[in-house]
What does this fold into?
Amino acid sequence: VEPTKRAIKGLDAWITGLRRTEGRTRTDYEVFEPSGSALTRIPGKEIPTSLMKVNPILDWTELDIWRYIAINKIPVNPAYQKGYRSLGCKPCTKLVKDTEPERAGRWRGTSKCGGECGIHTMHMRGSRS
It folds into this structure.
């Protein structure tokens, strides 16, 4: 979460790869979402600005993603060839069975199982994450 906060500091917008079909925590998202306050820095002062979160593939399915990759010949992370269906950081990514939802391996064995790490639920300003 902290690296993301640093990376988007001073930006007007950030683009995500979130999809509604990835889980119950994402069903109410919108394609364009103001994601709280951000600070734009200019020499000697900070100006509060709104940070827009853009979710362009929000209504795509997992099949839509793979179809787009195939049609456009986009290289993929080798972990997908090993059976992973949703990738995050190493400690939060586990293999899932074909019968499980694609994000079932995320945060497996924790209270966040299948949920969010905090990047997409955080307030962009302040200490909550």
Observations:
- The domain at 2-77 is CATH 3.40.50.620 (Rossmann fold).
- The chain has two helices and three strands.
